[in-house]
Amino acid sequence: MTKKEIIWREILHQAASNRGAVFTQKNLAQQFDVSLSTVFNALRLPRQAGAIEVSGRSFRVLDFEKFLYLWATQRNLDRETIYTTHADLPTREIEGAMPPPAIFGGYSAYRLQYGDAPADYDKVYAYFASDDVAEVEQRFPSRPGYPNLIVLRSDPYLHTFGHVTPDIQTFVDLWNAKEWYAREFLAALREQLRL
């Protein structure tokens, strides 16, 4: 994930629970150990779109939904994919057999977060650091067929959200998923996010 997306995720994650949250570029730069210019550049598109309002040294999210959709259209799951394979197991067994550093995304994240799934799903998306992919390959060797296990590259801050992606990242990942049932999950997640 790009530095811009990491910054966007943090802003949207905080704004999801407190729509009136106020942010400073300096705090975000310190939190993610990036330069102020990196944060400034990350805010360029949301500012141009009218999704954030900047006043002095601080800013706030003006249009949460617009900002979320902006990120969703910028997200590229293919660029983040580091391993795919076919596992001849039901999805829940695949999820249960994942190595401990797994951070579940997409359909699994929704089911684990909310205890239910709005539709059946046959693909498991999970985030891992590049160093941990070998363990996934051991448990799920490369096989031909329909890829139903997709491993995405984790960023250094994703683990702070626990074993599932935060709702806003789950949303943008589902927005970019190609499976027909992604629509059902997106509709359910829209309700959870009060969109």
Strand percentage lies at 5-15%
- Can you tell me the overall shape? globular
How many helices does DSSP assign?
Answer: 11
Mean pLDDT: 96
Counting DSSP E segments of at least 2 residues, the number of strands comes to: 7
Strand order, largest beta sheet? 4-7-6-5
Q: Which regions contain 5 or more consecutive residues with pLDDT less than 50?
A: none
Protein architecture, described:
The protein is α+β, with helices and mostly antiparallel strands. The protein contains 11 helices and 7 strands. The protein folds into 2 domains: 3-74, Orthogonal Bundle (Arc Repressor Mutant, subunit A), CATH 1.10.10; 77-192, no CATH class. The protein has a 4-stranded mixed β-sheet with strand order 4-7-6-5. Strands 1-3-2 form a 3-stranded antiparallel β-sheet. α9 (133-139) links the parallel β6 and β7. α10 packs antiparallel against α11. The longest helix has 15 residues, at 3-17. The model has no long low-confidence stretch (mean pLDDT 96).
